[in-house]
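2024-03-11 09:14:02 DEBUG pipeline.ingest accepted 1 chain
2024-03-11 09:14:02 DEBUG pipeline.ingest length=244
2024-03-11 09:14:03 DEBUG pipeline.predict start
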Amino acid sequence: MKALTRSASPRRVLFAIGTLVLMATSACASAPATSNNPMPPAPEPAASTQSKVPLSTVESLRQLIDNHQLTEVRTTYNSTYGASLLFRPETLGYYVVLFHGKEFWRVMQTDSFDDAESLYRTFVSQTQTLGQVEIDTMRLDAGNKYAEHMIAVNQAKLRSLQQDANNQQQQAQQVAAQQEQAHQQAVALSSDLHNTNAQLDAVKQQIRALETMQSNPNLVLPTPAPATTAAPTPQPNQPPAASP
């Protein structure tokens, strides 16, 4: 039985090979051949077998941030520059980031907390140096705008004071003119009052004289006027008499 089995095994193998050859030949004969592409198209490799391009550190960091897979440990800002220390709990890894505005400038990855702290302090020092120029520019720009604002405020105040001074000067001139007019009027009224008082005194004196005369019971007759003597008529051819 064993010898029969050994002798029959090669025959079966040859038979199987011949059958496969015949099947392949009949398949090639039945398939239509084209002049442009005589060979059948090669099957495209499966998507799983394609080589994947590794993501950059920045893109990987953005993806982790979008997926909320990072925890912010520290962040320092100096003007528009900043540094952050981020922790990824899944891998116990750290990301140290230097950014400007909303753009990541440098991203470094490490599994050591001490190295991450050292990198973070280095980035923070760089943000201080880089941000100092912007901070100085911001302060100087604000100082210039404040000075311009104060100039405008003080100019407005100066114009108001000048207007007040002009108004006060005009009022002072008007008051001075009114004072001069009042003084002249007072002088005139004083003269009028003096004359009026004199007239009043004269009238009062006449009243007192009349009252005294009327209160005297004695009859007082007026003194007769002295008689006048007529001058003699001169004779002709005689010189006129000398006046006494």
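2024-03-11 09:14:41 DEBUG pipeline.report The CA atoms of residues 219 and 225 lie 18 Å apart.
2024-03-11 09:14:41 DEBUG pipeline.predict end
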